Amino acid sequence: MLPKQRKTSTVLATRISGYSHLTVSPDENVQLLLSNLRDNFVALVAEFEGNLITRAGPDLNAEFPNAVNAIRAAAVLQNLSNTSDTDSTAGPPVRLQSGIHLGEILLDDESVSGDGLDIAISLRNLAQPGEIIISSAVHEQLEGKVDSGFVYSGKHAIENVLHPINVYRVVDSSERKPFRDVLSELFRRRIFRSAGAYFVAAWLLVQASDTILPVFNTPSWVLRSIIILLIVGFPLAMLLTWSVNLSPDGLVKTADSGYSRKTGRWLKFAVVSVATIISATVLWSVRTTIFEPPAENRVVSRSAIKSQPVIAVAELTKRVGDASLDWLGQGIANLLRDSMADSPLTVVYSLAALQSLNSETESNQNLAKAAKDAGVDYLIAGDYMSTASGIVISVHIQDLDNGTIIPGDRIEASSVEEAIAGTAQLVRRLKQTLNLPYVSQVGHLAADFAAENLQAYELYVSGLDYLIAYDYENATKLLQAAVDAAPNFGMARYRLAQILEATGRNREAVQLLDTIDLSSLSERESLYVRGAKHKFTGNRDAGAAIGVFSEAVSKFPFDSEAHQNLAEAYWLDYQNEASVKQLEQLIELHPQEAVSWMALGERQIDVGDTEGARTSLAKYVSMRPNDPYPHALLGELASRERRFTEAEAQYQQALVIRPNMGMPQLGLARMAYFEGSIDDAMSLWKNMIGNTEIAADYRIDAGFDYAYASRARGKPQEAFDTLKRLEPDIRNEGFREALAITVMAEVLIDLGDLDGAVELLTIAADNTPAAQYPTRANFFLAQIALLNNDSNAFANILETLWALKIEPDTVNDHDRNAAAHYLAGINMIAENAILAVSTIERAIATPDHYAYRIYELGLAEAHAAAGDATAALSVLNGIGNLDANQPRFDLEYDRRLKMLLEAEILAAEGRTTEAVAMASAFVAAWPDVSSQHPAMRRIQSLLGQN
């Protein structure tokens, strides 16, 4: 055997695509085509002065003296394959995949090997059926010498080759497009990648310089110089990218392709020209920032004052003075803010919204930038200082659109009291400057009161900071101290009432609101108090609250608190969609109002918009990362979707921030119940009930859950005692007193005390708010009448339900209709079970109704009485478990009774074994229940026990 010979050659590697399928084709024409294709390949190799390497099976490989001969042979072979397919009358088509590479091969008298063949085969494998793929080495030899076109296909890694290689797809000259050739050349020279990398690197450098340079008191021209150099350097960077390439061996000159040898000069000129135009455009757009002097050093040209401007009032900066004056900057800012908000023509950022902006900044200069980015038109700012002769206060207006400062006013006072009273003068000048009407008595009212009650106003300002942070304990102490210091301080009383309502002490809140002299307040503040009286009271009238707060929104369309109150009033009236819409409108006006994002997320959970809720709450968390409330709400959302691991993590995060927060503790207890850990849930609820550090409303929630679960476990006395223990808190809350009495009456029914239950239900009916109808109390009074076989009492109650005059199509109307149909159906089961079925079905089909029991239990009973046990059992099987999305713990007792009724129906059908098994399961679920419990008496009757 001769030793192997090394040579550089152009290798063509071709494979017949789908060869295995073609060989088993029953069509004789296909086999003939394959044979002819191999023969044609041998002839083409000889015609183009090549040497055959392989013609076995699907592989057709050869080497040629140059790239031109190889590409022509490959093209002719492809055309022969296409012509053969056209002539074939049946069978699958014949397609070729070809790869061509110029490289070194090893020859001996038996075989050919080497990188040249291996890479050609790898390129062949990249090709689609009907395609020819060539390497960059072949592309450089062919450009301008053949009619075919080439499309750059990127870099591809080749097995056993250290670096990826550039590859091209061969296209017919008719398919070739000049624009695509240009793009291919630009991609080959990495123009787009380099431009993107340059922009990112430049942006990072500017951001880093903007942060670091001020720390070293570097002159502002240094940053401007860096920006200019980066902009001017972009065309130079593109020119460098065109000419050289960064390789593992360092910078190397980018090799010309055949295409770039023909067009490279004008294409390079085009690239540099476009880069220059981009640089010039950027330089022009930032010219004012780079070349113009700072605002304080240039002549100011006043722009026209905007109509309906967006205004923010920053805390005034203390220049000189002792620590006892630290509160004054915020105190003056609050007076200015409230006075500006009394105009219906302005959008004024609230204190909470401004604090959200402030938390992201460290100076007034940065605050101005953040305010401008947030859509603020004018920032009112200033400073104050203590001098030997008194207090000096100076304010100005920053026009954020053009960076100018509009002079405001300056007052000198001999005392803090006089300085506070002088803010009315500041307000007058500011409104005059902004072309806003000035109501003198409003400005004087707030300022004069604050000046006369300086200690109270200082306490009020400090209390507001805690109130915004939901620190109710400290806010209560300070606001109560403000009220004690100035009993006629109406807004301090209102804010204190808000805290009382938020912590479940509604009766106290209403009593406090009743002591406020509305004539001492501005019109806007007076509307707040009037609406709150409808919203807080035990006889809550959500419709009246909607009316008052709608008036507030109409008169002060840009006031955030008016919108928030209206949204909450809609929610209390079960108009959740309207509440969401109102909050969305508020966020459009005040996107920095953090509490609005939180409220929107909560309402979106109510309406089932989970994705919207997640987005809103995430926004709130980003604005107030140390607030536990959004974490509790995210836990609630995850729990409703039964993602309990995520829910627990969110609840625990909320408790880390605020250990005695009620919502996450209630959520953890309910989640334990959903997962079947009943004892754990009961323990968590019990701990909440006894923890007076938890807000009363959440302890009441826990008490109801505990009572419902106790009743469902056959422990009615424990349920009764729990609600009795919480009776003072429930009475003080004012909203759920009638509900608690009704639940206690239901428990007395379980205990066999029907007279006591009637007495409580009568009280519950009398205590139900006038804006609602006591359907629940009457519902259970009717059931007691049925138990007592008192047909007259039952008829009277049912007639009351039917005859009640209620506005049609309200939720209460639907509840009443469904309840009346259910009770009527239950009453007629013994006499006409079939009619009872249709009547109860009407109750269940009533839209948007609130069921006071699981009405399907009555429907199953009616079906059984009508002799249709199959339908009855089917109805019972359709009763699901507790729904985490809309939990109804009050129906847990009925869910247990489902087992009892099913056992009774099975027994009536003679299916004794199944009935006994179901009855035994029911008894096992109530291990501690009294034998005198009504349900246990039914079980004993079913099992034949005495």
Sum up the structure in keywords:
44 helices, flat, alpha+beta, 6-stranded mixed sheet, 11% strand, 62% helix, single chain, 946 residues
Summarize the topology.
Blueprint: E1 5-17, H1 19-23, H2 28-47, E2 51-54, E3 59-64, H3 67-87, E4 95-107, E5 112-113, H4 115-126, E6 132-135, H5 136-142, E7 149-156, E8 165-171, H6 178-188, H7 191-212, H8 220-243, E9 244-247, E10 250-253, H9 258-285, H10 287-291, E11 310-313, E12 317-320, H11 328-341, E13 347-348, H12 351-358, H13 364-373, E14 378-387, E15 390-399, E16 404-413, H14 416-421, H15 423-433, H16 440-452, H17 454-468, H18 472-485, H19 490-502, H20 506-514, H21 523-536, H22 542-555, H23 560-572, H24 576-589, H25 594-607, H26 610-623, H27 628-640, H28 644-657, H29 662-674, H30 678-690, H31 696-712, H32 716-725, H33 727-733, H34 737-750, H35 754-767, H36 775-787, H37 791-803, H38 811-827, H39 833-845, H40 855-865, H41 869-877, H42 892-908, H43 912-925, H44 934-943
Helix pairs in contact: 2-3, 7-8, 8-9, 11-15, 15-16, 17-18, 18-19, 19-20, 19-21, 20-21, 21-22, 21-23, 22-23, 23-24, 24-25, 25-26, 25-27, 26-27, 27-28, 27-29, 28-29, 29-30, 29-31, 30-31, 31-32, 31-42, 32-34, 34-35, 34-36, 35-36, 36-37, 36-38, 38-39, 39-40, 40-41, 40-42, 41-42, 42-43, 42-44
